[in-house]
Amino acid sequence: MKKFVLVLNCGSSSIKFSIIDPIYENIYLSGQASSLNLKNSIIVWNIENKKYLFNKKKFMSHNYSMNYICKKILLKYNFELFKNVVAVGHRVVNGGIDFKKSVLINTLVIEKIKKFFYLAPIHNPINLLGIIKIRKIFKKLRKKNVAVFDTSFHSGLPKKSYLYAIPKKFYNKYHIRKYGAHGISYCYILKKISDIFNKNISKINTIICHLGNGSSVSVIKNGMCVDTSMGFTPLSGLIMGTRSGDIDPSIIFYMHEKLNISIKEIKNILNNKSGILSLNTKSSDFRYSEKRYYVSKKNKIAVEIFCYNLAKYISSYFFLVKNKIDALVFTGGIGSNSSLAREITIKYLNNFDFFIDINKNKKKYLDFNFVNKNGTISILAIHTNEEIVIAKDTFNLIS
């Protein structure tokens, strides 16, 4: 009998779910609830090349979507397939200092994930919602749930990268440091680069841009992450869908002390009302601004600021692997799909031997695409697959 893994990837605005053969990497079911809590909420899924769609309800919440996925899709549409599921793998964004590798989920693990809500306030609560729902609805798999942490990939960061210049007691006692995120995606992309260039992972130097509703950049030297843009929480670094990214910390003091805005509301503003949404004033979806780039000033500036901010991070990391870089990689929903974002970003970087072939950049592709001119640093657009990494980690652990 074949053994499958159910993978659940609960994001800030989406829930991805799939049933995967972890050995041969075959995907038998794949689906996504997307644009959650927005007007265009939708659930789509594919079972054995048959496509299904559910979009009757606007502003679908994560809770509603999880119930629908479990009861109306997993148990209704393909029950026979689900009978071969031997474990469930969950993406968890932040494992703090406690989790440097994937773990079987029990009561203690759940309590620790709760403890780290403050480290990933948009993600960890949603990650835990998925865990609790699956354990409650599929009782036979209750002890076969595995947490795979995004932060594990960054656990080897050097001190000069993860320490903040604040009194040491805040690190020693409260573990305030850089943790990073999107590690599962980076793990997949690193393996993909290894296959493309036929090169051992331990010899790879690359800069990877994971761009989506949440965005980050990581620089990899000799197969190890040596710096990343997200920090203590996923709020820092690049401009994102609804997150501000880096700002002057004194803005928070000013908003609280001079404008009488509560700390709770400031937290909400910076996490849920900033980023692309605040720049175009209409939508956190990058595609909204991309489609209006040539006809709307505020959407054009939203795209430009996003790309400018990204280019600054890439250039600041370039010195770590200068003259040894194998590739600059774009991945994530924006990174692998937006030719406009790649084109504008690379134009800012032409002093660093990064050049883009406009025609190659616009080509559609299934797996990956070289989008640069010959004779320069390789630029790749690669579709990430966090689910494959989660499935393999989960199966290896329960085995």
The appropriate CATH architecture of the largest domain is 2-Layer Sandwich
Q: What order do the SSEs take from the amino end to the carboxyl end, as H and E? A: EEEEEHHEEHHEHHHEEEHHHHHEHHHEEH
Number of strands: 14
Please tell me how large the radius of gyration is: 21 Å
> What is the total domain count?
2
| Percentage of residues in helical conformation | 25-40%
How many helix segments? 16
Task: Determine the strand fraction and express it as a percent band.
Answer: 15-25%
CATH superfamily of the largest domain: ATPase, nucleotide binding domain
Structural class: alpha/beta
Largest sheet: 8 strands, mixed
Q: What is the CATH class designation of the largest domain?
A: Alpha Beta
Question: Outline of this structure?
Answer:
This protein is of the alpha/beta class and 399 residues long. It is built from 16 helices and 14 strands.
Give a topology summary.
Layout: E1 4-10, E2 15-21, E3 26-34, E4 42-47, E5 50-54, H1 62-74, H2 79-82, E6 85-92, E7 103-104, H3 107-115, H4 124-137, E8 145-149, H5 159-162, H6 169-172, H7 183-197, E9 206-210, E10 216-221, E11 224-228, H8 250-257, H9 263-272, H10 275-280, H11 286-291, H12 297-318, E12 327-331, H13 332-335, H14 339-348, H15 358-362, E13 368-370, E14 378-382, H16 386-398
Parallel strand pairs: 1-6, 6-8, 9-12, 12-14
Antiparallel strand pairs: 1-2, 2-3, 3-4, 4-5, 7-8, 9-10, 10-11, 13-14
Helix pairs in contact: 1-4, 7-16, 12-14
Written account of the structure:
With 399 residues, this protein is α/β, with parallel strands linked by helices. It has 2 domains: 4-155, Nucleotidyltransferase, domain 5, CATH 3.30.420.40; 199-382, 2-Layer Sandwich (Nucleotidyltransferase, domain 5). It has helices at residues 62-74, 79-82, 107-115, 124-137, 159-162, 169-172, 183-197, 250-257, 263-272, 275-280, 286-291, 297-318, 332-335, 339-348, 358-362, 386-398, and strands at residues 4-10, 15-21, 26-34, 42-47, 50-54, 85-92, 103-104, 145-149, 206-210, 216-221, 224-228, 327-331, 368-370, 378-382. Strand 9 and strand 10 (216-221) form a beta hairpin. The two termini are 15 Å apart.
